[in-house]
Each structure stands twice: as structure tokens, then as C-alpha cells.
Write a structure and sequence with these properties.
Number of strands: 5
Distance between the termini: 41 Å
Structural class: mainly beta
Radius of gyration: 14 Å
Helix content: under 10%
Length: 82
Amino acid sequence: MSDGSSTILPLELVDRCIGSSIWVVMKSQREFVGTLLGFDDYVNMVLENGTPDGYKKTKLSKTLLNGNNICALVPGSQGPEA
């Protein structure tokens, strides 16, 4: 019984974000913005040109984020200031 609407699974949405900008909010209240290069079944993810929040805006060439510590993902976002 289909009502015409399509459903999308969470990992499918993350997969569609590969190569795009993503804003990642960590459980520790840290935030990263970068281009999603890839992820695994545990949502460990690799960001390119990631910029962590904090006192200094430091560009990181590649960053590995532990999926257990990710609180929220915002696809297509440049972060809270954008």
C-alpha cells in the first residue's frame, strides 16, 4: 500500500551528500563544516577542507570523525553563520 510518497533511509541521505558541503555537530558541542568524502556503516566520516569551530578557524585538509560522537548532520550547510 503506497501513498505515493517516497521514503529515504538515513544512510541513503548521507550517501547522497558525498561530495557536498555538510555541517556536523558533535556530542561534545564541537562543530565541523567541510566536504563529505565518505562514510561507513557506523557513520564514521571523512571530511575534506573541514573547519572546526572554536577560537581559531583552522582549515584541516582531511578529518576523520567518529560516528559514535556525531549528534547531528546538516546537509548542504556552511554552518550556523551562513
